[in-house]
Design brief:
This protein is an all-alpha fold. 76% of the residues lie in helices and 2% in strands. This is Gustatory receptor.
């Protein structure tokens, strides 16, 4: 069955999230905002899109910081860089590729910000027709744990790299922050798809009941398919920019 995705929700402050959906989404919003990769704003239980100023200022701020830190590192180590063309080329290439990839990432966030909000609101619509209330606590716990475990796995690698370097610059720090940002976006995608799988599993179990409303079940299934399609739209862009 072909699914045509529409955006039935108007992006306005009236987009209030249910209590359980807010608990599920809150880790995503906090962590991604912390790494300058927010997909939406959540204030007082309402989900709204991030403004263009947020993306422009974030991109400009990180870009200025990267250029400034690279300039300082070059100034401090100018003699070594003059003697090692390979190291200088690596540094310039890393800065250029990071700036381009992060810019592409910001553009995708702007283009698909409506899709990200529509996905969350579609998940809320599914939640109202497919009961996963008993699983919410586990979902929330694993949302937090997934980010924490990913960060813990990165610490040894980052620590060993720093210990092996003669100097540590802001460029190294910026590079690792960008890696954390991209990895956290993958975790976000994994947790969203895991949640959709939970919905699909509960929906499958519910149709085994002797008494159920066929029309409501078909509508819930349609919503699940649309959520999967919205997921594909949002995260295909993230994967391509990473």
């Amino acid at each position: 069955m072909k699914v045509t995705v529409v955006h039935p929700f108007v992006l306005s402050p009236s987009n209030k999230l249910d209590k359980d959906i807010l608990r599920i989404v809150k880790p995503f919003n906090i962590i991604l905002t912390a790494v300058c990769s927010s997909k939406y704003k959540i204030r007082h239980g309402y989900i709204t899109p991030c403004g263009l100023n947020y993306y422009i200022l974030t991109y400009a701020g990180i870009g200025v910081f990267l250029v400034w830190s690279t300039y300082n590192m070059i100034s401090i180590n100018i003699d070594e860089l003059n003697q090692r063309a390979d190291l200088a080329a690596y540094l310039y290439c890393t800065m250029f590729l990071f700036y381009i990839s992060y810019g592409q990432f910001i553009i995708y966030n702007i283009i698909h910000r409506q899709d990200h909000i529509s996905l969350i609101l579609k998940i809320q619509e599914i939640y109202r027709s497919v009961d996963i209330s008993k699983c919410v606590q586990n979902v929330v716990l694993w949302n937090w744990l997934s980010f924490f475990l990913m960060f813990c796995c990165m610490i040894p690698n980052i620590s060993l790299l720093y210990l092996s370097q003669n100097f540590v610059s802001y460029t190294h720090i910026t590079n690792h922050i960008s890696n954390i940002m991209f990895d956290f976006n993958f975790i976000y995608g994994i947790r969203i798809i895991a949640l959709l799988v939970v919905f699909l599993k509960k929906w499958s179990e519910s149709i085994l009941d002797k008494e159920f409303n066929l029309e409501k079940k078909l509508k819930a299934y349609q919503n699940i398919l649309e959520a999967f399609q919205l997921f594909a739209i949002c995260f295909r862009a993230i994967v391509s920019s990473s």
